[in-house]
Amino acid sequence: MSSKLHLSPKADVKSLISYVATKTKAINGKYHRFLERNFPRFYLLYTTFTKGLQKLWADAKKSRRIKADMVKHNVKFHQLSYREMEHLRQFRRDVTKCFFLGIISIPPFANYLVFLLMYLFPRQLLIRHFWTPKQQIDFLHIYHDIRKKSHPEVLSYLEKVIPLISDEGLRWHMTELCTKIRRGTHPAIQEILALRKSFSNHPLGMNQLHASQIKALSRAMLLTTYLPSPLLRHRLKTHTTVIHQLDKALAKLGINQLTDQEVKSACYLRGLNSTLIAEERCRTWLAEWLQISCNLKEAELSLLLHNVVLLSTNYIGTRR
């Protein structure tokens, strides 16, 4: 009588699947090593693209889970935790950029042109997940140089409207602040907060800002300026409100709970070129920003918007 043991059909299938998976992984590893050895530049693009897709898919799943929880528990955006709010904010921006890319690839055979454009203009057309490590650093410098060009224009507008401020004491404070910044001095928190009332109504309230200042502030926030003034104003107000909500959530969480990368990303969003600054200095600057932001009312958010320029222009280590 034979004592030979036979595997069940189910076990055979599992064994076959395991064997195929192992072989596929080995072949894939050899293929990667071949590309890395013989085509290093292509391999870098290939791995960046595949990892980017994985990150984007993971972001999409996380955003879907957060939104499902918001519906389930009847939670508004501003009631989320800091990390959930920041994730949704960034994912919305990423999706907007991807949506534009999808639109231009709709016509027949346009996808071939889109791939060429993606290769030639990665900063303009691709989101951060599809940038190489070197591109991430280089592009952040380029974007900051773009918004830094708007700083003199924003300051000039503030100096121009000083005579229109009705309160004499506020006029003096504004003159002193602009003079300090022009001379390269980093302003103190109280010097900025002393001007809250100036930014709640004419001439520096959010609804009273001139179209030229709206465009300059849009560039300072890395937002497009190619929209009609009413839409630019609405977008700036929305963007500033979201940052204010993020600030409140971050103050509740505590800066000490953030990783170094999260701190640098938070600083960069708020106008500081954190790629040039040590982590501890970034944390100090972010604490200053939060102290200002958390003392502002909704009607005073124009000051928070201008703070992107006022607080970042002369911070130590930002000049290249």
Automatic annotation (TrEMBL):
PROSITE patterns: LETM1_RBD. GO terms for cellular component: mitochondrial inner membrane. The chain crosses the membrane at residues 98-121. Residues 146-320 form the Letm1 RBD domain. The keyword Isomerase does not apply. It is a single-pass membrane protein. It is found in: Mitochondrion inner membrane. Keywords: Membrane, Mitochondrion, Mitochondrion inner membrane, Transmembrane, Transmembrane helix. Its main location: mitochondrion. InterPro entries: LETM1-like_RBD, LETM1/MDM38-like. GO terms for biological process: intracellular monoatomic cation homeostasis. It comes from the Eukaryota. GO terms for molecular function: ribosome binding. This is LETM1 domain containing 1. It comes from Myotis myotis. The lineage of its organism: Eukaryota, Metazoa, Chordata, Craniata, Vertebrata.
